[in-house]
């Protein structure tokens, strides 16, 4: 893998991200006693922060790597939506105009964190049907953006935007780019077939394959064959946490790439980094093994940070050098 060549090439690409956009809030504090009202910790709040989450974090990862990121995901005309739009602008992510709605509430996840440990998470969101795309959304907002893009990335967090008809509608867009990638959230009724790349994690891959999870080694051959038979993705990358990344084409396992991470603080958002880096490298014409190694290095940077995060070219180069020096 020529890391410099990949970093140079991906910075010239433009990616359209379609998916569930959300605001990730963090309440940071300390807890030294239990509440007298219930057996729960009393958290003394030190500060509160907010970052772009879900598909917005995918777009942030693309922008951090120097690419142009166009984003479609519902953002409400509410206080949280205003804050999210400000974050997107500061992160050089272009939110498509049609994605802002006065009738759709912004999705918000609030995590309470004490001493680097998450105590609980509070979710604010409407029913999935509220976030579904219509044919008018596809025609008026997504079709023009798709014509400008080098690739389309579908980021599914199961909140409703990627409904059963959305993947089919995106694949049917006129003059769309050849490469459409997908980070899936498997559920009944959603047809993921026909994409250029799918990036499920271990549990998602098992659900996509219709195979029950069980103790023992990951059943790579059976999972890859079953996913290919059901959805026929041209490429499949299964993220297996500490075990690495499993690459597959044509329903057959190709290679297991060991994880590049040396120190893990938080895996939140690592999947966003992986699909962003993979999509960019594939759009730039690199083969799957090189694209996966690039994504593996980028993910190694991100899991060494706390909370959803991104990896810049400078961080990737520095981290790759440090790992090679310590090998």
Fold blueprint:
Layout: H1 3-10, E1 14-19, E2 21-34, E3 41-54, H2 55-64, E4 68-72, E5 75-76, H3 79-90, E6 93-95, E7 100-101, E8 107-114, E9 117-124, H4 135-148, E10 151-155, H5 166-171, E11 180-183, E12 197-198, H6 202-209, H7 220-231, E13 235-239, E14 245-249, E15 252-257, H8 270-283, H9 288-302, H10 313-326
Parallel strand pairs: 1-4, 1-10, 2-8, 4-6, 5-7, 10-11, 11-12, 12-13
Antiparallel strand pairs: 2-3, 8-9, 13-14, 14-15
Please describe what this structure looks like.
- This protein is of the alpha/beta class and 327 residues long.
- Helices cover 35% and strands 27% of the residues.
- The protein contains 10 helices and 15 strands.
- The strands form 3 sheets. The chain has a 9-stranded mixed sheet with strand order 6-4-1-10-11-12-13-14-15, with helices on both faces. A 4-stranded mixed sheet has the order 3-2-8-9.
- α5 links the parallel β10 and β11.
- The protein starts with a helix and ends with a helix.
